[in-house]
Design goal:
The structure is a single chain. The protein contains 16 helices and nine strands. The relative contact order is 0.15. It has one domain (3-396): Alpha/Beta hydrolase fold, catalytic domain (Rossmann fold, 3-Layer(aba) Sandwich), CATH 3.40.50.1820. It is α/β, with parallel strands linked by helices. The protein has a nine-stranded mixed beta sheet, sandwiched between helices. The chain is 35% helix and 11% strand.
Length: 416
């Protein structure tokens, strides 16, 4: 390391130690879109409190089911609302009730009691929380998803929902649909960058990153140590950032908000569960007894899979393998990239954050949802043929001519 880089690293460490924790920053954020979810709370059977935020449309459409948006690993629900023209705003403009929630161990979530009070203090420091980190995908599937579904049912009166998940937020949908006694509670599923089969293994770089984060978690909070990156990225970070987003597709203000408000700590239990997935290619239960990837053929839920041509975490070959294994007769896969006529090759988080997503991705997603609501015809008036759902499971390309119909922008009114 040269002297300049070493000086920057030392300065970054000093700033990190002085920075407030993620929740402290989010509580004081300039917009509700960046703050922890506190409109209501879903309570799981294993004792977790999960914050929920509700986006209400000006003109609700009674023929449309609510939408639940679930974010990915090491993040919180602010993932969905970092940009000014975000997906929840477009969904509400089209009449959907929208719910986002902070998954366990993110936001202000915790297990009520003495340990939760201690962890609330730790969230304002660079040190990791204690006693709440050994959970895995299995607990999310068994406890979190039903709790959030119950919350939305009580609030909206609807027993079914449209589930949209990004990365881990979509990965958890597969085992839920495979194992839950009431898979029909998901009327429709949209997975954005969500695969549970890896086409190329071992994923050496991600395995190294997994081990590094698990090592850091023993002594500190990676999410809170990342706060200073909102101001300045360290030398050599371009390669790491590329796993998450493409700098040329995402506005600098969005990137600053990402580091300021969205980073959380992925639990060691979750990271341990991901190790065999990255090494061998199939997502397994945490005890290794259930191969979730091998059960994909049991799923019958209408499914839309969205892939980015430049996604390094859920790449197109892995998405296609997951897609082809699905048992649903109503499934569609869209690949967003220049080869298919789009403005950009989309990376992992670009699918929600790119400046182009409101005009290229969100309208396609909403068109697909509209056609799958109760009583909707299979092809809406004016819908382009290339947007029709692929009942046979073939991959579709999306023309650049698709236009967005954004509603009132639910914007963030200040920089971090």
């Amino acid at each position: 390391m040269n002297r300049h880089a070493g000086g920057l690293s030392a300065a970054w460490l000093v700033v990190a130690l002085a920075m407030p924790g993620c929740v402290s920053m989010r509580i004081n954020a300039p917009s509700p879109d960046l703050r922890p979810c506190t409109d209501g709370y879903a309570y799981t059977q294993d004792g977790w409190r999960l914050g929920v935020r509700h986006y209400r449309p000006d003109h609700p459409d009674p023929n449309k089911l609510p939408v639940i948006l679930c974010h990915g690993m090491g993040l919180n629900a602010t993932f969905w609302t970092l940009t000014d023209d975000h997906l929840p705003a477009q969904l509400t403009h089209h009449g959907y009730e929208v719910y986002v929630f902070d998954i366990r161990a993110s936001g202000e979530n915790g297990k009520p009691g003495r340990q939760d009070r201690i962890n609330r203090i730790l969230r304002g420091t660079p040190f990791r929380e204690s006693g709440e980190s050994n959970w895995s995908i299995d607990e999310m599937v068994r406890f979190d998803i039903p709790a959030v579904l119950d919350y939305v049912e009580r609030d909206s009166g609807r027993q079914q929902v449209n589930w949209i998940g990004h990365s881990l937020g979509g990965m958890v949908a597969y085992p839920f649909l495979e194992l839950n006694e009431r898979p029909e509670r998901f009327a429709n599923f949209v997975g954005m960058g969500s695969t549970i089969i890896q086409a190329n293994v071992p994923q050496t770089k991600m395995l190294r990153a997994n081990a590094a984060i698990r090592g850091l978690l023993r002594v500190a909070s990676p999410g809170r140590l990342g706060r200073p990156l909102m101001y300045h990225r360290l030398p050599g970070m371009e390669g790491i950032d590329r796993f998450y987003y493409s700098a040329e597709n995402v506005d600098p203000r969005t990137i600053s908000r990402y580091y300021a408000y969205t980073l959380e700590d992925p639990g060691p239990g979750l990271l341990a569960q991901f190790e065999p997935y990255l090494r061998d290619g199939h997502l397994l239960s945490s005890d290794g007894r259930i191969d979730y990837a091998a059960r994909l053929g049991q799923i019958r839920t209408p499914t839309l899979m969205v892939a980015g041509a430049a996604d390094l975490i859920s790449d197109v070959p892995s998405t296609r393998l997951t897609f082809e294994a699905l048992g649903s007769a109503d499934k569609t896969m869209y690949v967003f990239g220049k080869a298919n006529g789009h403005v950009a090759d989309y990376a992992h988080c670009d699918l929600a954050w790119s400046r182009h997503a409101p005009h290229e991705i969100f309208p396609v997603l909403i068109e697909w949802l509209d056609r799958h609501q109760p009583g909707a015809s299979s092809a809406l008036p004016g819908t382009a043929l290339s947007l029709s759902t692929s009942r046979s499971g073939e991959t579709r390309q999306i023309p650049r001519s698709v236009s967005a119909h954004p509603g009132p922008q639910v914007g963030v009114d200040a920089d971090p």
